[in-house]
Amino acid sequence: MLEASVHWGQLITIGLMAVALGMDALSLGVGIGMRGIRLLHVLRISLLIGIFHMLMPLLGIFAGHYISSLLGQVTGYAAGGLLVVLGVHMIINSYRKGTTTMIDYHAWAGMILFSFSVSIDSFSVGVSLGMFKSELLLTVLIFGIFGALMSMMGLLLGRRVSDKLGSYGEAIGGTILLAFGIMFIL
C-alpha cells in the first residue's frame, strides 16, 4: 500500500513523466531494433536503461533539493522552465532527419553509453522534481521500470515495424514534458 503522503495525483504525474522520459528510450530503441538485434542484447540494454533511468533522476533530485534551498520561492518557475526547455528540445530532435548513432550497442561500453545518453534527460526532470516534495524511492522506481519496459518495447517493436514511429514517440514525450513545465510555471 502507498504511504499516506503519496497522493493519487502525484502518482499519476510521476507515471506520466516516466512515460514521457521512456518515449525517448522507446523511439531510439525502435531505430536500433530495426538494424537487427539479438534478444540477449534487448534484455541487457533494457536493464541498463532502467538502471540509468533510476540513477540519473536520483542525482537530479539531490541537485534539485540543493537548488531549491538556494532559489527559495523561485523554485516552481525554475523547475517549470527546465521542463519546458527539455520538452521543446525533445520535440525539435524528433523532427531532425538523418541522425544516426555511431555507438556499437553490441559491446558493453556501447550499451552503457547508449543507456546513459537515453537517460540524460531524466537528470533534468529529477532536478525539477527535487525542487518539490516527492516520494524519492517511488519516483526513482517508477522511472526505472518505465524506462526499462519502454526501451524493451521499442527494441522489440523495431525488429518488426518501420521507422515512422520513432520520431513521433519522442515528439509525444517532449509534448508531455512541455505541458508539465507550463503547469509548474502557472
TrEMBL record:
Entry's transmembrane regions: 12-33, 45-68, 74-95, 107-130, 136-158, 165-185
Membrane topology: Multi-pass membrane protein
GO cellular component terms given for this protein: plasma membrane
Protein's cellular compartments: Cell membrane
Gene Ontology molecular function: any one: manganese ion transmembrane transporter activity
Top-level taxon of origin: Bacteria
Pfam families the record matches: Mntp (PF02659)
Main localisation: membrane
InterPro entries in the record: Mntp/YtaF (IPR003810), Put_MntP (IPR022929)
Keywords: Cell membrane, Ion transport, Manganese, Membrane, Transmembrane, Transmembrane helix, Transport
Family statement: Belongs to the MntP (TC 9.B.29) family.
Matches recorded under HAMAP family: MntP_pump (MF_01521)
Function: Probably functions as a manganese efflux pump.
Listed name of the protein: Putative manganese efflux pump MntP
Organism: Paenibacillus crassostreae
Lineage, uppermost ranks: Bacteria, Bacillati, Bacillota, Bacilli, Bacillales
